[in-house]
Amino acid sequence: MSRLEKASAGAVALMALAGAAIFFYAPTDFLQGAVQRIFYLHVSSAIAAYGCFAVVLLGGAIFLRTENYAADRWARAGALVGVVFTTVTLVMGMLWAKKVWGAFWVWDARLTSTLVLWIIYAGYLLVRRLTEPGRQAARLAAVVGIFGFVDVPVVHFSVTWWVTHHPGPVIINDALPPQMLATFLFTMLCTLVLAAVMITIRYRIETLMDLKQLVPSPVQVVITREPGGVAGPVQ
Amino acid sequence: MSMVVANGLTHRFGGELALDGVDLVLDTGEHMAVLGDNGAGKTTLLRILATALRPTSGRLQIAGLDAFRERRRLRHYIGYVAHNPGLYPALSAAENLEFFCDLQDVSRSRVPEALEMLGLGSVAHRRASLLSRGMQQRLAIARAILHEPRLLIFDEPDASLDADAAELLGLVMKDRTAVIATHDHALANRLCPRTLVLRHGRSLGTATHLRVVR
Amino acid sequence: MNPFRAAIAVARKDLVSEWRTREMVPALAQFVVLALLIGNFGFQIDSRNAPSIAPGILWLALVFAGLIAFGRTFAAEREQSSLEAMLMTPASPVAIFAGKALAASVLLILCEVVLLPALWLFFGTPVSAGVVLAVILATIGMASLGCLFAAIVARVRARELLLPLLTLPLWIPFIIAGGQAVQSAMGLPGSYDQAIGLLIDFDILFVVLTSLAARFVLDE
User: Fold this and answer.
1) B163 has a chain A CB within 8 A of its CB
2) Closest Cβ opposite residue C89 in set B82, B100, B140
3) Average pLDDT value for residue range A146-153
């Protein structure tokens, strides 16, 4: 088994353990009931997604400064994994909201800014798909990644500001009971490990794809001199 | 003294190798033609020499300066005419040039002179969109010499120029170093003592003159 | 070389071209009027609900007019391959970018000159100086972001597809603050001053950021 395979197996095992903790160790919430168990993975994957997008930001910034393609590959890997975790966050959040708030979607600050986050990085992936791979594509994507990351707190701030003008539902997490806190912290750790492993695997894939592109095509380049020759002084 | 020194210029577009390790030395005042079929890498080579494109690998020195670190400074030395004239259709010929004088930071008084040199004096106030293709090409050449560059780089300047193209180009290239990409072997022979032949992105070497057997 | 001179030269070049051809502004003006028309059919607007619906239609019309305006500025330069000729001069890419953004903002403001009176005419909502200020402040920030991303997508195959996808999420802060400002200027509750302050903050933030990024976007 390669190191990456071992790491993947480890991450899957950790997630299984986290699942066990969520369903069998953590107590059922007094007010919300079983649906509260969504919280553990929901918040963890949101944090993992932010981590992934920080990788995109850093990778992009480093690429712009040093032109190091490894940094660009990390950024690409981070964006893909980050979008996956944001999707998980959104879907789980909507399931929770349906049960607790009675609607899948509410224009709350967190929901809105997370949706914007998802759209920005899905756009990042589209930019990568629609540009010819190379220096130019990497630079453009780096700019998109940096603006995306800057925009998220700005959107969050402005939505919060806006929501306070139009009061809406606000989630306040009172101090969690210790068992819940332990479960949450453990789940978060496992999710971060999973995200790190996924990014590393994706990085490997991106490296292989880059290599495939950079190796000269197998088509034989035949250099022949045309009859009559190209060189030689004119009489 | 060498105007252009290039070592192992290589460029890839995605996975495609467009230029494969081209070496080149060009002395000051020398005129060189670049020949090759479509897709041989002529435009890529010229854009790299004009510092419009950064090669994937390789080194390039122009006038003793590193072409990619001192790019902004070198822009004063280089006049580049791309295959496509790239004019503003709604502006007149003179206005097109005046705009570029502003960007080049040279006096607008250069404009009539440049127009006259390329035989565009009579159409100075005609909109670029109403000029014939050949005149547009001349206007693009006039634009490239506004700032008196020392190195001229022409990508198929003859493509739509008329019969006296060679004479005109000869006039513009006088006392300057020049690189011209062309299909026209006869033109290359007339204007350039030296020829570089590209095929599949590789240099087949340079020759002092070309024997045309086609 | 003086970057301001270069920026002004670029902006003037774009505006003179527009004046000669008169392509963009009439098209944009017609577009925003059509947007108002569609808003009217979609919402059943009367004098009671107009102040709460009109700001929404205003921003929708403005956002989509902006996408067209900014998408066009760089697409035209690329089609004519004149962008490369500009970038081959010693003028700084940031100055060129600023000039393009300036010209595009002027065009969008011209289209607002049609949009705001039309809004007043059709929906009877008051168009005060407060509304005008909010719209212009939002236009500045939206133009800088819009032009940056228009320059990015100009070299991409599916530019019409990507420009709204990348730009709209980044415009959201402007639409939130601008929407709030216009609503309160039209008599709905909410702090106008705070919204304007926020718009100015966002303008500064994004104008600085886009001019830092312009170098990487325009340089080959």
Assistant:
1) no
2) B100
3) 88
- Domain containing residue B181: CATH number: 3.40.50.300
Q: Which domain holds residue B163?
A: 2-207
Asked if residue B128 has pLDDT above 80, the reply is yes
Whether residue A136 lies inside any domain: the answer is yes
The helix or strand, by DSSP H or E, that contains position C4, with its residue range, turns out to be: helix C3-21
Which residue of A65, A128, A144 is the best one to mutate when testing the C interface, meaning the one whose CB has the most C CBs within 10 A?
Answer: A144
Tell me how far apart the alpha carbons of residues B8 and B165 are, in angstroms, rounded to a whole number. Answer: 32
Q: Chain C: give the shortest CA distance to residue A206, in Å.
A: 21
Out of A142-146, A153-157, A164-168, which region has the weakest mean confidence (pLDDT)?
A: A164-168
Q: Is A233 exposed, middle or buried (0-12, 13-18, 19+ CB in 10 A)?
A: exposed
Closest chain A residue to the Cα of B35, Cα to Cα: A230
Tell me, yes or no, whether A230 lies in a domain: no
pLDDT at C218 over 70: yes
- State the pLDDT confidence band at A177, using cuts at 50, 70 and 90: confident
- What's the CA dihedral at B11, B12, B13, B14 to 10 degrees? -160
Cβ distance of C155 and A155 shorter than 8 Å: no
Half-sphere CA count of C10, side-chain side, radius 13 A: 30
Compute the average pLDDT of residues B13-31: 86
What domain range is A95 assigned to? 3-214
The reply to whether B213 falls in a domain is no
B212 in any annotated domain:
no
Averaged over B20-32, what is the pLDDT?
90
* Contact status of B53 with chain C (Cβ, < 8 Å): yes
Contacts of C114 (CB under 8 A, 6+ apart): C29, C32, C33
Max intra-chain CA distance, chain C: 57
Using the beta-carbon criterion (under 8 Å), do C191 and A165 form an inter-chain contact? Answer: yes
- CATH code of the domain covering residue A72: 1.20.120
Tell me how crowded residue B199 is: count the other CB atoms within 10 A of its CB.
Answer: 21
HSE, side-chain direction, 13 A CA sphere, residue C39? 26
pLDDT by residue (tens digit) across C146-156?
999 998 888 77
Q: Confidence class of residue A174 from pLDDT cuts 50, 70 and 90?
A: low
For residues B180 and B169, the answer to whether their CB atoms sit within 8 Å is: yes
**pLDDT tens across A40-79, in order?**
999 999 999 999 999 999 999 999 999 899 999 999 999 9
Total number of domains in chain A = 1
Return the number of CB contacts < 8 Å for A and B.
53
Residue B186 is assigned to a structural domain of this protein:
yes
- The answer to whether residue A187 sits within a structural domain is yes
Nearest neighbour of A230 by CB, restricted to B14, B54, B204: B204
Q: Contact C5/B104, CB-based, under 8 Å?
A: no
Mean pLDDT score across all residues of chain A: 83
Determine the pLDDT at residue A84: 97
Residue B185 included in any domain: yes
What is the C-alpha R_g of chain A?
Answer: 24
Interface residue B125 vs chain A (CB under 8 A): no
Confidence grade of residue C48 (pLDDT, cut at 50, 70, 90): confident
Touching chains, B (3+ CB pairs < 8 A): A, C
Residue A220, pLDDT score: 35
A66 touches chain C (CB under 8 A): no
Shortest alpha-carbon distance between residue C166 and chain A (Å)? 6
Number of domains in chain B: 1
